[in-house]
Design goal:
globular; 11 helices; alpha/beta; homotetramer
Chain lengths: 359, 359, 359, 359
């Protein structure tokens, strides 16, 4: 991805060698996520184009410079199927890291496939090889989890996990998820695993809502069929004895979802905003009715920490039979058709798309 | 107060007798708060006019029907100087009370001087006598605390306390308070008592800002002299190493304060909305920049519970020498000049005004 | 139950009539719990013998004095199958209720079947009728839940729920439950519903451990076969990569379980003590190793609030197909064989026993 | 300190040179804390004798290899008066660091003056020079804070801060501190800064209790004059309306303080164990009465994070006029009399002792 709005270019580069303490992976697959579409439209600031997209990926360890170990201290052998925590460069030494303990806001933080310039190396998954810089945390896929399972969740897995953690769901809570993309679907899964009594998904298109129901959502609302916001709010209130939901998780990317979601929320409820990863514009809220009198708790949720990746992955290994994440992968693309993947993603004709550089 | 926009009327009513389990107070003084101005403008919904204004008051126990006791179980004798928790009728039996434990949102909740119709009795402090219904919680003023001390805090005392509790101030946090009325000033006090490193107050007019500085605010910003929102944000960032404040408490009543306050907030900070007690209109926020990417926590804060009244009052008794709440009382009015009090309150020419029915 | 250690007596009493605001139930069934055994041994203080045992019960509404409603405000008709929150008399007016918000420690709190003297009425479930005092919260059993389902959980249902709520289980946590009685089994259920990665139950006898495995426990340890505490600790460490569990819930009633459970806990973990409902003696702990250096959080958990009963019951209605609570009912006894129920309970030959006064 | 129980030895070593990214300080002063006494008695496990004691120290930057910066990113020039976070080697890569986010339990963590072998360099403050390893966090002393001010707090400053943070003191809480050494005194300070209504200190000897009162404690109890535990519990109950304190912080080092402190605690209160830094033996607790029925929260508190050091130091700079930490320094010792400092510390004849290597 050379620049916003420009066609993707495939480039042939020399095979990387691991830096001391680092490694090189042979890519198995990498995800296409909504952020990649935003990147292509130039809607994120501070992106050092050209970049190699693909922030969450799976590969096999090809070579390392020095021994590799997972977070538990167990050695990682060559040939192991791994993913890795895509955030690197978190400094561990600044005020955000040390005093505020808000590592996802560390100003030194970089992300594979997003804020890593191609000049720094093969730091993105849409590539036959991925360079693992020293300090990047490798995570072997648990037994029984293949690349398709993990990437069926993709970055939506830890992001949805983080949103549910932040929501602080109490056992017996009713949860509404706004948005039926990968983040929303994973949030719907983790809400169930956290003791929600019922989970409702509001989104589109129907294929994604069907996926939501298959994953256990109690009911879904197709926003293309119910265009009036007040009708959608009424739909939620009908399912919550008129009170609104205990928890609403916004994972839609649409600014107008925010005031609508606040209307869907009960007094004293919790509202998580996790879908606004790019600036899609402003929203109009009523501070009196929607925040102050409602005694609402509104929680922005940015990025994810290693802990979210680790915990969401062990839960995937446990519940893969029940949720079948790999079924979310609608289509796979070879590297030379990656721009088709972006286009399909943009028109929402796929739930989850993978790039397979070696297909 | 017979109806919105109508002149106040003084009426002579028969002296009340206590109902079984209730009591009658001889009023010493009652506060005039911003809500009274809103009531007079008809900006609150569900108010059963005519009403007797005055929700937070002090009186002496004149008569009771049955023994009276405080929350610690100690008897309250006739003649004791008391205030009372102005909320009554909280049912203790509904879903909000029992399951959500959100008592300030109980639909059966009523408030002296606000949602109590005059036809139900003398349930407001702008009156020579106040009827204490059975179950209303009486609170003797602690030793050393007079009516003027307590009413210098008034309803702003427990409201500001609640806002600071909800903010979850960590020791060493920097706090900005938007608004320099009674709620804002009390929030500035309790922020200091909670371990804030520095407290900044943004408001007007100068007399209130001077009060803020006397009460320990590190610095104040007069919004009438710095009319541009971006300059006010810059003023805060100058005092917080460019990051924004750890905690911002909105106590201004102006919807536009909300997006401005979010800009004053650091990434990962907490924002409390406690000033929007009536619907003064909408606000425009940017969900991406001000909530999601900022990883902000936004906390609506409605009403107060008995606990907030109790705890704020014992802290007043402890710190009255340091904060001198009674100095916030700018002026006192006899009952027949109550409409003057409303007018002075509206033009902010007083910090705190008292009605003294027996002056 | 006339006095500690004395045989149970069946007495014929006049049929009760509802007090104003109250009701009378025709008893369907009442549980026998460990507390009943303790009551019979005189191990609880402040019990006003003679009492009618049976604190958690199910009945049909026979008669009421005034309209009845559930917590959502819906009318409860005669003939409805209900249970009720067994705690009554919580004052809502004392320091514990209002300031500390620790209602389970309100000194005025009384409990059906435990601290209600028989002279006050039919306030226990081992009786053909149960008197519902005014203010006692009735709860209709949800659709699809019969008396056997609910009483299969019994008081262990909200108690186990409360323990899991207090544990603050994070998604992906590994949980050990010490004790395989009704509280332990329900804690194992709710731990799974809260996102635990794995749940291990340490207890006896084998029949209860089998129940635990049927209910989804990943593994169980029979303490009668592994008598050495250090071996049991090693068993947990083997299943937690040597670190100990993230959360341990003590539901055993044995004081020695406390230091053993602390050894099973990882550094920084949370330990809930919910099994010590009577004084069974002291325990020896090492404050340095087991609390301070371990950075442990130890959480006593007393009683349950209405919220816990309500939420655990709606979750039962949702998950009854998965967990099949009614299978925990090992045996039912008519009223004249209640002492046999106590004996079976004491020797742990039943998981859950019911008294059916009208069998 | 060559080995447990052996006399201290002064050794002359070559002046250290900074490693790349590191620095060398000229020592101004270093504290003598209770841990040093324990180290000398061999009561800590895993100490790699010989060591250079002195974990919290102040020095001037003599030389660095590469630019130095504080946590805010500001350059630190040669000659600057600094302290540093004494913990180093926290890996940031293991399960404790990344998943449990319990960095004070990272197994790779080392501490200057405690777990740093002398063979690794001048990693302790009882030395004319201190070597700052790469990655160790330097902290310039704030304006107005001298070495004596900071070391008057010493390691007790962030430790007491951490204990109070963990206690979660609510505004208006009554707090009891058990122990009047540096940790206890700093906990008493930060409890006041957190909104405590009253702080009581239980300890000895009288000189330390006098310091506690000077620092604002409402009352103190000399345990040498009130030897019966039940009398001490009664003393606390007399000051808390018979209920016990909302929060009790154990900072005494005596295992028997734990059950005593639990008796001093109100139902539903929070108990922090921060004084048991070495294994001084077991304690006997009653799980029923002191934990379960009391619904107590017991919080072990180990070590401190950088955040605690940073925040406690900025608060010291703010409140140094009120609390005058430097007055806690009872005596200073040149390096060759360090063993005298240990002896004075052991017999509690000093509150805080400093070693001044260059005196």
């Amino acid at each position: 991805m050379t620049a916003p709005g420009r066609p993707l270019e495939a480039r042939r580069l020399p095979a990387p060698r691991p830096r001391p303490g680092g490694a090189v992976l042979e890519t198995v697959a990498s995800e296409v996520c909504g952020t990649d579409v935003h990147l292509h439209h130039g809607k994120l600031s501070g992106v050092p184009y050209p970049i190699i997209p693909g922030h969450v990926s799976v590969g096999r360890v090809l070579e390392s410079s020095g021994p590799l170990a997972d977070v538990e201290g167990r050695a990682i052998a060559s040939g192991t199927l791994v993913t890795f925590y895509d955030v690197y460069g978190t400094c561990g030494a600044c005020w955000h890291c040390l005093v505020a303990r808000a590592a996802t806001r560390c100003p030194h933080r970089k992300v594979y496939g997003i804020t890593a310039p191609a000049s720094d190396g093969l730091l993105g998954g849409w590539s036959e090889r991925i360079e693992i810089l020293p300090g990047v945390r490798l995570v072997p896929l648990p037994e029984g989890i293949g690349a398709e399972d993990f990437l069926g969740g993709g970055c939506g897995l830890p992001t949805g996990f983080h949103a549910v953690e932040r929501a602080g769901i109490a056992m017996g809570d009713t949860v509404v998820v706004q948005g039926s993309g990968p983040v929303g679907l994973n949030a719907a899964i983790f809400a169930q695993l956290s003791g929600a009594l019922a989970v409702y998904v509001v989104g589109a298109p129907e294929a994604r809502l069907e996926a939501a129901r298959t994953l256990g959502a109690d009911d879904t609302l197709d926003i293309t069929r119910v265009p009036a916001s007040s009708d959608r709010v009424a739909w939620v209130r009908d399912r919550t004895r008129g009170r609104g939901a205990d928890v609403v998780i916004e994972a839609s990317g649409n600014p107008a979802a925010v005031p609508e979601g606040l209307e869907m929320l009960r007094d004293g409820g919790r509202y998580v905003v996790v879908g606004q990863y790019t600036d899609s514009g402003d929203a109009t809220v009523n501070p009196h009715r929607q925040i102050n009198r409602k005694h609402a708790t509104v929680l922005g949720c940015w990025g994810y920490e290693f802990s979210h990746l680790h915990r969401s992955l062990v839960l995937m290994a446990r519940h893969n039979g029940r949720f079948r994440w790999r079924d979310l992968v609608t289509r796979e693309y070879p590297l030379d058709r990656a721009s088709e993947a972006l286009a399909d993603m943009e028109r929402l004709s796929v739930v989850k798309a993978l790039v397979r550089p070696r297909l």
